[in-house]
Design brief:
GO molecular function, one term: rRNA (cytosine-N4-)-methyltransferase activity
Order of helices and strands: HHHEHEHE
Structural class: alpha+beta
Pfam families: Methyltransf_5
CATH topology of the largest domain: Rossmann fold
Shape: elongated
Number of domains: 2
Number of helices: 5
Keywords: Methyltransferase, rRNA processing, S-adenosyl-L-methionine, Transferase
Helix content: 40-55%
Radius of gyration: 18 Å
Family: Belongs to the methyltransferase superfamily. RsmH family.
Protein name: S-adenosyl-methyltransferase MraW
Number of strands: 3
Strand order of the largest sheet: 1-3-2
Largest sheet: 3 strands, antiparallel
């Protein structure tokens, strides 16, 4: 395999279609590669661990996640660190109108926490 198109074709043949058929079979494969190569989950974890050091008491941090692994990291970071007060018990999701206007927002989840002393 030497070209992106070859990987796309392999994914098309091997990866089952999503339930709603809106997502190309290669999408998740490329997403997984991007997340791994860029250490996106590690970067998110490190940022959330250090955030209380640079957010003043009373300050807020808002994180939008687009992937379940990201959301789990954010949720657990806010829950496990006593320096955060969670302001969004459940993540905020886009409305149907927002998704209609911006389809990429469909998987977005917003979580907000306040820095406590």
């Amino acid at each position: 395999m030497t070209k992106v198109g070859e990987l796309v074709e392999i994914c098309r043949r091997c990866v089952p279609r999503s339930r709603n058929h809106d997502i190309h079979p290669a999408t998740r494969t490329f997403q997984a590669l991007r997340i791994a190569v860029n250490d996106e989950l590690g970067g998110l974890t490190r940022t959330l661990q250090s955030a209380p050091e640079w957010i003043a008491p009373g300050g807020r941090v808002a994180v939008i996640s687009f992937h379940s692994l990201e959301d789990r990291i954010v949720k657990n970071a806010f829950r496990e660190d006593h320096r955060w007060e969670i302001l969004t018990k459940k993540p905020l999701r886009p409305t149907d109108e927002e998704v209609q206007a911006n389809p990429r927002s469909r998987s977005a989840k917003l979580r907000v926490a306040k820095r406590v002393e």
